[in-house]
Amino acid sequence: MKIRAIQYVVLIGVAAVFLGPLYWLLSTAFKQPSEIYQWPPAWWPHLTWENLSLAWKAAPFDRFFLNSTIITVGGTALKVINAVLTAYAFAYLRFPFKKVLFFLVLGAMMVPGHVTLLPNYLTVATLGWINTYAGLIIPGIGSAFATFLMRQHFLTLPTEVTDAAAVDGAGHLRTLWRVVLPMSQPMLVTVVVITAVEEWNNFVWPLIVTNTASMRTLPVGLLILKDEEGLAAWGTIMAGTLLVLAPMLLIFLIAQRYIVGGITQGALKG
Predict the structure, then answer these.
(1) Measured in whole angstroms, how far is the alpha carbon of residue 52 from the centre of its chain?
(2) d(CA 201, CA 236)
(3) Could you tell me which of 134, 175, 150, 133 has the C-alpha nearest to residue 82?
(4) What's the start-to-end Cα distance of the chain, in Å?
(5) What's the pLDDT at 270?
């Protein structure tokens, strides 16, 4: 019983560490200005919707939201399609230098993303894609991590099923669409959610490749909001942060059971 009690205390402590900042953000977004700076802190504020209204009006958040949605949907779709096709090739096809190429993919996972910022920017600028959706989406459609996850999962699937599809005359695309992907739904959802969160929260690349408010995204919009509101309007800033956080949090809650299933199915196999 003592061990069980200690376990619960540790779990509650860890949960408090992770949920405490989230609760503080949520409560501050609905606090009145006088409650934000009072001491001791107001843990149960008098709710007000004024901060959300001020945050939405302080910057063109409707345009930021539209841009983030287009970039997230388009970027996630292209990145996942690319990862699935590449992973299928590495898992089921035979071609020269297959292992070498896969090791290069693994090596790409170890390269910091900031290393490619300058080459990507020069390429996008040469193509005239500054302040365009193409410039925001196309340079990031390759994901070594997503490819690795899907490839490792494909290797755990029973080969008898894909062999049976080949005997029935199914080509690779039909086998992928009709056989492999239906068996990989949890892992596929996991990859989609991870990729969508990455696209939605991307800050550095949209900041570099755009210079007009009409093409900014929500994370960059928060920076604009802070610059415009200054350090005094933390309620407005937290409300804007909540607007950025809410969509991805909702998606995670909806897809949570698939994510857990995908992680438990993600046993590594060489």
Answers:
(1) 24
(2) 19
(3) 150
(4) 42
(5) 46
Q: Whole-angstrom Cα distance, residue 65 to residue 8?
A: 40
pLDDT of residue 161: 84
Alpha helices in 49-203 (DSSP H): 50-58, 61-92, 98-109, 117-127, 133-137, 144-154, 159-167, 172-175, 181-183, 185-201
**Which of the residue ranges 58-72, 223-237, 248-262 has the most confident prediction, judged by mean pLDDT?**
58-72
Answer whether residue 125 shows pLDDT above 80. yes
The two three-digit tokens of residue 135, written as one number: 């410039």
Q: What is the pTM of this model?
A: 0.82
Residue 269, both tokens:
């196999």
CB 92 within 8 A of CB 172: yes
What letter represents residue 103's amino acid? F
Number of helical H runs and strand E runs in the chain: 16, 0
